[in-house]
Amino acid sequence: MTKNTDPVALLQTLIRCPSVTPKEAGVLSALEGMLESADFECTRLPFSDDDTPDVDNLFARLGDSGPHLCFAGHVDVVPTGDEALWTYPPFAAEIHDGVLYGRGACDMKGSVAAFAAAAIDVASEFGGEIPGSVSLVITGDEEGPAINGTVKMLQWMEENNQLPDECLVGEPSCSDKFGDTIKNGRRGSITFEVVAKGVQGHAAYPHLSLNPIPILARLIDQLSSQSLDGGTDQFEPSTLAVSTFDVGNPATNVTPERASTYFNIRFNTEHSADSLKAMVQKQCDAVQAEMGGEFEISSIVGAECFLSNPGPLLSVVQQALHDETGNKAVLSTGGGTSDARFIKNYCPVIEFGPTNKTIHQVDECIAVDELEALTRVYKQVIRQFLSGETKA
Question: What fold characterizes domain 7-186+306-387?
Answer without folding.
Answer: Aminopeptidase (3.40.630)
